[in-house]
Amino acid sequence: MGFKCGIVGLPNVGKSTLFNALTKATIAAENYPFCTIDPNVGVVPLPDPR
C-alpha cells in the first residue's frame, strides 16, 4: 500500500523550502510569489517494520 501526500498553501509561505527539506531536492525557493508554478514530485522512503 502506498502513501501520497501534498503540500498546499498560500503563495510565498515556504512550501518549496519545506519540500526541499523533506526530500533533499534542490527546486527553486525564491523570495517572490509564484516562483514554482509547475508541481514537483519527490519520493521519500518511509520504513514500515510491520
TrEMBL record:
GO terms for cellular component: cytoplasm. GO terms for molecular function: ATP hydrolysis activity; GTP binding. It comes from the Bacteria. Pfam families: MMR_HSR1 (PF01926). Gene3D superfamilies: P-loop containing nucleotide triphosphate hydrolases. Residues 3-50 form the OBG-type G domain. PROSITE patterns: G_OBG. PANTHER family: OBG GTPASE FAMILY, OBG-TYPE G DOMAIN-CONTAINING PROTEIN. Keywords: Magnesium, Nucleotide-binding. The lineage of its organism: Bacteria, Pseudomonadati, Pseudomonadota, Gammaproteobacteria, sulfur-oxidizing symbionts. This is 50S ribosome-binding GTPase.
